[in-house]
Design brief:
The structure is a single chain. This protein is mostly helical and 268 residues long. The protein folds into 2 domains: 105 residues, no CATH class; 145 residues, no CATH class. The chain contains 11 helices and 2 strands. Helix 9 crosses helix 10. The N and C termini lie far apart (45 Å).
Length: 268
């Protein structure tokens, strides 16, 4: 398998979470999982091709960009070969497929964001784990997300962060409610995420004199590494990561990014 087709588990789960079990082609109503509720009939389509002989190939993209969530959409087994037929390339340009993806996923995103129990499950996955204490500031000030993105030079993860920032006002009252119930503390959840971030960042510091330079070069790799570790953490503790729960983790990560528990704090 080429790297451009080696999709991470969080990427696959997020694709299915936002698909609504339906082909992304707007004129198609085929389900992605057949009527036996087991057989998967979907195929992952690259908006810009995974290889030079594929449709809509962009030589300027890296393999990490080609296999990233932003460049993928789910099509049924009927639509995928039509869209990826080189002879049809002019009918299915990049901008059209990006529009399909945005329109198709936005409805499911709204539905999932209103599922409070889903967000609570995602919170508990992270907050109930035990890590060694990490030396960090105790504040949880939220920074302007665009300033934070630019300071860390985030690229691949930028669309997700900018889209999910709207849930900042929703998740913080939920934290406050859970704290009143005595079931968790927001500080522990954020410490756990910070600990995972520091571990992931440490993988990329070797060979750089300036830590911030290393972070900026590898910002997207570090962020995606934290996402993978959070999914693995849930599996380790016996909590099956459903596609919907994957969305909840992404919302919490966006909030943690704004509070500078993932990537570095911009100058004030």
């Amino acid at each position: 398998m080429t790297k451009a087709r080696n999709y991470s588990e969080p990427t696959k789960k997020k694709l299915f979470a936002l698909s609504g079990n339906q082909c992304a082609a707007p004129t198609c109503d085929n389900p992605l999982i057949s009527k036996d509720h087991t057989t998967v009939t979907t195929e992952i389509c690259h908006i810009e091709a995974a290889s030079p002989n594929g449709p809509r190939y962009n030589s300027l993209m890296t393999d990490d960009e080609r296999r990233h969530f932003n460049n993928l959409l789910l099509l049924c087994g009927v639509c995928h070969p039509i869209v990826d037929n080189k002879e049809n390339e002019h009918q299915y340009p990049v901008e059209l497929l990006k529009e399909w993806k945005k329109n198709h996923e936005s409805t499911k995103t709204y539905q999932l964001s209103n599922n409070t129990s889903l967000l609570i499950k995602a919170i508990n996955v992270i907050a109930t784990s035990d890590f060694e204490e990490v030396d960090e500031k105790g504040d949880t000030e939220a920074f302007d997300i665009r300033h934070k993105i630019e300071h860390n030079q985030v690229k691949r993860m930028r669309p997700m962060l900018e889209e999910y920032k709207v849930y900042f006002r929703k998740i913080n009252p939920l934290y406050a409610e859970l704290e009143l119930q005595g079931s968790f503390t927001k500080e522990k959840l954020l410490r756990n995420i910070k600990q995972i971030y520091l571990r992931e960042k440490g993988k990329y510091l070797s060979g750089y004199d300036d830590e911030m330079t290393a972070v900026r070069i590898h910002a997207d790799d570090i962020f995606e590494g934290v996402e993978v570790q959070l999914h693995e953490l849930a599996e380790k503790h016996g909590r099956s990561i459903s596609e919907d729960l994957s969305f909840g983790i992404s919302v919490i990560m966006t909030d943690a990014f704004m509070k500078c528990k993932i990537l570095e704090e911009p100058p004030k």
